[in-house]
Amino acid sequence: MVAPGGLTLWGPSVLPLSFSERIVAAHAGGFSSTSLIPFELRRAETSGQGLREIRAEFEDAGIAIRVVDPLATWLPNFSPPPELREDDPVLGGYQPDEVFALCHALGADLVTTLALFVPLLEVDAGAEHFAAVCDDAAEHGLRLQVEFIPGTGIPDIALAWEIVRRAGRANGGLIVDSWHFFRSNPDFDLLASIPGDRIFSVQIEDAPAKPSENLAIESLHGRLVPGDGELDLARFVAALPETSSERLIGPEVFSDDLWQLPADEIGRLLGERTRALLV
What we know:
With 279 residues, this protein is α/β, with parallel strands linked by helices. It has a single domain (7-278), classed as Divalent-metal-dependent TIM barrel enzymes (TIM Barrel, Alpha-Beta Barrel), CATH 3.20.20.150. Helices cover 39% and strands 15% of the residues. It is built from 11 helices and 8 strands. The chain has helices at 19-29, 38-46, 51-60, 96-106, 123-138, 157-167, 178-182, 188-193, 215-221, 233-239, 263-278, and strands at residues 7-9, 31-36, 64-71, 110-114, 143-147, 172-177, 199-204, 248-251. An 8-stranded parallel β-sheet has the order 1-2-3-4-5-6-7-8. α1 (19-29) crosses α11. The radius of gyration is 17 Å and the shape is globular.
């Protein structure tokens, strides 16, 4: 079931690593593409490494930058807490045009939208706002994918899919993350019923059966490599609808323990475990 274009090494799995170390990890695990976060791109530019250089570094290594993630300012009531660190991986203070420009500079064609720091979305309003930002993205030749996250304005797959469905934009779809799926409302029947070409990306990671008392800490620091936890990942993968369109799929493991390993070991472990699950 590995995507025809190969596996995607989602950026958070290698978040503390330099771009050169991420390439080492990607090669060790046999990954062909990756995602990058706006704040780390701006941080690199501040340090003197321009977007053109970043793109060339990855392209020369045979690793495509496919996704810029996240975009949170597509909702008008986006209101992040003032204490949010500049290097917080969920930082979403970049405006749509800024994120679209990053995509063009890096050769990415996909943006992940999150409903961070907003109340629970009403479905019609969510669909209206998503349709509008999809139309803006279409002018740039880009696609957008809604990610549902427990505790945010789009907490589960049911609301995420209804927003995408009602928005009705060809360049608008879903990204389905196994940790978010199991830690919210894991509706396998709904997952299997969604048209396959509407699920643009899949992220895979494991976790204990019992959630932590602090889901935010678990999500950003304590996810597990596939096979190290107790989630029914085989059932999750089996429920994913088939698609004739390209779909990005790979691990997204925020893990303090994983990040202690050398770059090549991180990549090899993630690649082996993910492939074993997808066979």
